[in-house]
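INTERNAL AUDIT FORM
Audit reference: QA-55
Scope: verify that the stored structure record matches its stored sequence.
Auditor: D.O.
Record contents follow.
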Amino acid sequence: MEANYFAYPVGFACLACVELHEEPGLTWFISGGPPGNGVHITQLAPEQIDATIERVQQHFRAKGRRTLVWQVLPATRPANLGDYLLAHGFKLNGEEPFMVADLNERNAQINTPANLRVKRVSDADTLSDWCRASAAGFGAGVEDIQIYHDAYACLGFDLEGAWQHYVGYLDNEAVTSSTLLLADGIAGIYDVSTVPSARRHGLGRAITRAAIQEAQARGYRYATLQASPQGYEVYRKLGFEERFRRVDYVWQADKGG
């Protein structure tokens, strides 16, 4: 589950605006948007931690980035990394549940509007529709998710590839979206959104189910996702169960640099 989650932001590294740092035991990003500004993988010895945190903080200062998020997951080492981060001026910034489903188990029946039409993104036009639905669903402007458009266009539209995207239409209007990433032996589901005017009609379940069906067709047994508070019960009804939580710590650089 963690490996698939780490593979997702690496996909954005095809863009010039994303600065990817991969070194033994540490992976981190600087970006104008997704995958965000922060450290995703830490697997270091305790005696390396203090110097590493200071070095990453200094790099962010030098780049003019004043916000740094450091993620702690079950595979993070040392296990008490949070204590080190707090000592270096980080603050606890919430947590997010990671869920998993066995795709061999029966999934709940989904009742959706008869006029819902789901398409896989296969060209620039359907990618633009995906972006409009995603922006509206997440309450963002289209310009705010331009980086998604650019990254997914860069990754291409191979219908047999690891990355797949889905958009749902009601009366020819794009209203819901999702992304599937098949990596590291598990199906990761990301970017699930539904525009506010079309919520509470099962569209989020339907667009998630579209990704699940593709994963099943490719022979994947397990699917994983990260759940928002609004989506938690939706995913439980689809057979997902919480497995662990990611804990985030945030650091803000002093205004004086």
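Auditor finding: record pair retrieved intact. The domain at 2-95+245-252 is CATH 3.40.630 (Aminopeptidase).
Action required: none
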